[in-house]
Each structure stands twice: as C-alpha cells, then as structure tokens.
Amino acid sequence: MLRQVEGRLGHLTLNRPERINALDLDTIAAVGVGLADWATDPAVELVLIDGAGERGLSAGGDLRALYEAMAGQGLPPSEFWAREYEVNATIAHFAKPVVAIMDGIVFGGGVGISAHARVRVVTERSLVAMPETAIGLYPDVGALYLLARAPGEFGTHAALTGARLDAAQAIHAGLADMMVPVAQLPGLVRSLQAGRLPEAAGPPGAGSSPAPIGHSDWIDAAYRFDTVPEIIAALAAHSEPAAAQALQTLRAMSPTSLAVTLAGIRRARTLSLDEVLEQDIPTCARASGPRSSTRTADPAGTRPSWPTSIRPTSPASSPRCADPRSESLSRRVARWPGGRVRPGWSGR
Prior knowledge:
Elements: E1 2-6, E2 9-14, H1 25-39, E3 46-51, H2 63-70, H3 77-93, E4 98-102, E5 105-107, H4 109-112, E6 119-122, E7 127-129, H5 143-147, H6 154-161, H7 167-172, E8 178-179, H8 185-193, H9 217-222, H10 228-237, H11 241-251, H12 255-268, H13 273-280, H14 329-334
Parallel strand pairs: 2-3, 3-4, 4-6, 5-7, 6-8
Antiparallel strand pairs: 1-2
C-alpha cells in the first residue's frame, strides 16, 4: 500500500499490480489505518483511493489466500470478511469526501473498496463486476445494496450473471458516478490535491444516466421473478440472443449461489448499507464455495461441476447471512475517528 499526503489530499494506492491489486488482510488493514489517521488530520480535506498499474483498481479478494483459509490455514474467512466489511462501511460513513478511481478491472472486493465512496470515477477502460456466483460464493462487500437500487432488474442481472459492466453501465447500475478519460486522470488528481472535489454529471446513485447498451426490456421481463427456476424459464422462453447468452451463463453458475444471491438482493431493497454488509458476513450461505466444487467437468479440471438442480428459494426461506457472534457494523464503525455518520445518511 502506498500512502501519502499530497497537498490537501490523503492518497491511498493499492500496490500489488502483479496481482491486479488483489486484496489481502494487510491491504485491508492499511486502508483502515490510513482512514483512521486522516479522519482527524486537519491537513487532509479529502481522500483518494486508486490502484497501481494499468490493469485495474483491484481484481478483488486474494483467492489464493481464501483457498488457504478455507483449508484451515491462517485467519478464518469469516474474520477476514468481517474486517473487510468494516472498512467498506467506514469508507461509506467517512466524514471527509472519499474519491475512488475505478480504472480497469474492478471486481468483487475492488467494488467494495470503491463503490461506497462519495465520488466514484470510471474510465473508458473500466470493467466492473461481482463475479462470485461463478466460483460458488456470494456477491458481498455491500454490492447488493447498490445493485438492488439499480433501474429495473439490471442489478439482479448483474448480480446473478457476474456481468462485466463498462463505464456507462456501471454508472447506470449505481456503482459509479462519472466517467473521466484516462488521459485526464492526472488533472483530476491535481484538482484533488488542491482540495477541489469533482462534481458528477448527475445526482449520485443508480439511474443517473440514460439506459446504456445492455439494459434491454428482456432483462426486466426475465429477472422480475423471485426464484431462480422462474428466471431460468423466462430466459429460455425469450427470443433475444442476449437472453440466450445470459441463460447459458446462469446454467454454468453454482445453483446454490444463484438462489442465495437472488434472495439477498431482494432483501437488500429494504435494508441500509450496514444491514446489507451484516447479511454478507459469510455463512452466507449455503454458498458452497470453491473448496467444495468438484473439478471433473473437463480433463484439465478448470471448470467446476455444480449440482444440476436448482431448488426454488424465496427471500423468506433463504438463510440469513449475518454472523450472530459479530458486533454490529454500525457500532464498530462508530468507534472509528472517521466514523461519524453524515447528516441524513442512510446508506449511500
């Protein structure tokens, strides 16, 4: 992690470019420490989070470390995720403006460390996604809070399929606020160093831009249902080629992860960000995870083989994800120097 004060700006740069800045516990802790120190530093008026290298802000959590943790080596995954979510919530609650530059690949945990910032900047190179259902996990880091508020069922489509969203689609989904060309990023950083906060093209949040290419009527028609089998049937009945592609994608995903994700995004519609993060604490479950997927689908063992049936799971019947042993995120964040809630804040 690179951490420095540049003029009025506290600048945090994820610095594992060879791993597309994959997040490990040290990185998460360093972000938390930086925010805590700058919360009471009068010389720092705003904070920037970006990533080293040209490949992306962050490809998400370090899967190698996750596999080792699930095998009983190192910190339990639930503890890692709890600490990660605490930092996600702190970014959202932070009393000083946080700006995130979401250039290049921004997957999974990379979304959590950026999409809850005050100003979220994408570029022409951005690819933003929550791909967890492909590896038997669950879209966490509070992403379902944002995707549940996307126009129509665009967020449901993105959460279930792990769709890679370009800049316009990410803004439409409520995961970003404005697009700045890569060539103009140095000028943006200079403005931040001078204490000038950029203004988004429209009000923050989902739907602040016209519907981009990729949000068609078939998405709202097919994903309006509350069980995965109904969504599968609706996609199968649609003649749109993109619907057929989405159907093929869903059939390759973990059925358990799809059912739990759908239930989670439906619940997230009525929850605050902190409540969504609390439901993310992993037991989340019944998402089987990469450790339990078999590797017999092809000779190379590169494609997991999931159970073939998808059982109907409603939001009411899907298991809650919060760990009852964990302290409320709101209480944990309130103890941070920078954890003051902005007036009228109720999530993002």
